[in-house]
Specification:
The protein is built from 14 helices and 3 strands. It has about 375 residues and is mostly helical. Strands 1-2-3 form a 3-stranded antiparallel beta sheet, covered by helices on one side.
């Protein structure tokens, strides 16, 4: 596979005047990001207070850590919001190559960190990074640059690239992130005007691949069978999703009240990370979960609105890719907690505890904010 040459950006961006920021940016989008991020701080504290006391004798431990990551993410958001989005076109290739290098580095002894049976992190001494989170953004930038110019016979190269990146993530193992990357990549491919026949070919291939990966891996197969038959292993593979749905159900319409969750007392696994939406539902009820879901929908809508007004192909695809990523990841997390799909182990954007996801997501939103400066929204 040959990487396209993106250095001559002028030849594919049509000299549009929108490349120079002329507006103040989408203030509604900024407000939505702020509100969801603050909700995240409250929920991380609320859902983690029990395990924080157990492990660190400090009820505020996870909340303080999340605030640190939010500050770092805010710095990243601010920095990226001032970088002209077209700058990313020129660095798309080295950015992708660097990300692939990091995905390989997780398997290097002494550098990669193994936890809970997975190798997904790199130890940098002062902090730990999860390269698969960076892969989401770097691949969106690369595909947006690649697809911004018309090119024939790129279907095979597209499959090869996605297969290489996703393959490195699958063996970590991390199926949830792989599904997000494949879904966003497919959307970008078709947003760029690809033939609809490719779509009908890709969907069955993806379905078969996911099924095979689930069957050959014992723990993934257990998750799949527990989804199909929740009562089969209530104290094993089905335990987390049963506790999550119990939390959602006990919340009713208005919830038990903020801070009154029972599931956070070590009944619900990953209460402050992957399962944090269940705590939200238990304490704030249907109203709270509907409100947060609506906030995500609004963020995605603002992103698509920005994309619809961008004149150049690269900016349009970049905005669509970032918005689709937020929409797909939030939808998959919520659907898994509601037992609509098998558990995927992915965080809720801007809310779940975790540094890499939060910082990278805010970096991507900073790019989206910069794109919004070039249009009237």
């Amino acid at each position: 596979m040959r990487f396209p040459n993106f250095h001559n950006i002028r030849g594919t961006q049509h000299h549009v005047k929108s490349s120079t920021p002329k507006k103040g940016g989408d203030k509604i989008l900024l407000l939505l990001i702020l509100v969801v991020s603050l909700i995240g701080i409250v929920l991380v504290y609320d859902s983690s207070v029990v395990i924080a006391i157990r492990d660190f004798s400090d009820r505020f431990y996870y909340a303080k850590e999340q605030i640190k990551w939010l500050i770092l993410g805010t710095i990243a958001f601010t920095t990226f919001s001032f970088i002209r989005y077209k700058t990313w076109y020129a660095v798309a290739v080295p950015l992708l190559i660097g990300t692939i290098g990091m995905l390989i580095a997780v398997f290097i002894p002494g550098l990669g960190v193994r936890a809970l049976g997975a190798k997904r992190w790199i130890n940098l001494g002062i902090t730990v990074l999860q390269p698969s989170e960076f892969a989401k953004l770097s691949l969106i930038i690369y595909l947006s640059a690649w697809f911004s110019s018309r090119e024939k016979e790129r279907f095979g190269s597209f499959l090869l690239l996605i297969g290489m990146v996703v393959g490195l993530i699958i063996i970590q193992p991390d199926l949830g992130t792989s599904l997000i990357i494949v879904s966003v990549a497919m959307l970008l491919y078709f947003f760029s005007g690809a033939a609809i026949t490719h779509f009908f070919l890709l969907v069955p291939l993806l379905a078969v691949a996911v099924l095979l990966i689930s069957v050959v891996s014992p723990y993934r197969f257990a998750r799949l069978t527990s989804f199909l038959d929740p009562g089969k292993d209530p104290l094993g593979a089905s335990y987390q999703v049963k506790q999550a749905t119990l939390a959602l159900g006990s919340g009713g319409v208005f919830g038990l009240g903020l801070g009154k969750s029972r599931q956070k007392y070590e009944y619900l696994p990953e209460a402050n990370t992957d399962s944090i939406f269940a705590i939200l539902g238990e304490e704030t009820g249907f109203i709270g979960t509907l409100t947060v879901s609506f906030l995500y929908l609004c963020i995605v809508y603002r992103g698509f609105r920005i994309a619809s007004k961008v004149e150049d192909a690269f900016g349009r695809l970049l905005a669509l890719g970032i918005s689709s990523w937020i929409g797909i990841q939030s939808m998959m997390n919520i659907a898994a907690i509601a037992a609509l799909i098998p558990l995927t182990g992915i965080p809720l954007p801007l809310i779940s505890y975790g540094g890499s996801n939060l910082v990278v997501m805010l970096s991507a939103l900073g790019i989206l904010w910069n794109i919004s400066k070039t249009v009237s929204v």
